[in-house]
Amino acid sequence: MPVTTIDPKTALVVIDLQNGIAAIPGEPIPSVDVIKNSVELAEAFRAQKLPVVLVRVTFAEDGADMVPGRTEQVRPTRPRPEGWDQIVAELAGHAGDIVVTKRNWSAFYGTDLDLQLRRRGVTQIVLAGISTSIGVDSTARAAHERGYNVTVAADAVTDSDADAHRNSLERIFPRLGETGTTAEILGLVRSLV
Fold this sequence. Notes:
Layout: E1 10-15, H1 19-22, H2 31-47, E2 52-57, E3 98-102, H3 113-119, E4 124-130, H4 132-145, E5 149-158, H5 162-176, E6 177-180, H6 182-190
Parallel strand pairs: 1-2, 1-4, 2-3, 4-5, 5-6
Helix pairs in contact: 2-6, 4-5
């Protein structure tokens, strides 16, 4: 279903487009295409003087600040490469952008994202990034719970698992808001007066 509207106070929230995560190939949309579409969205939002939020995830080298608790999946113990948690060069370096650092799946939990958006009067967020079924999905759910209108740029998100990606796009996001293509969203953003 196409996106119906973009509120005059909408923010672009880009999840985890950072060196270490963007290096993962991406399923079913290649990560390079997600970056390209996210850059187009960011440029359009900046041109309209709308907030662009770049979210990155990081952890202490010893993992002391990782979310505690038992999981069935083994957590990585190998050292991360230098700069793995830095925003990709294509998106970084814009002084007006808001950078949020998280240590959980959701960009809202334990960060000042909600405060940053509310101070600017934001009523809607457009989501892009990696990974669809984890960071993007968790952030979309948290945004919905906080009363934001949620839009997901369906061709500006990807995952390491194509089935998980499809599940979020087809079953979860339609219950939280709207999904549309980068082109549809760009058309609506550029038509804002």
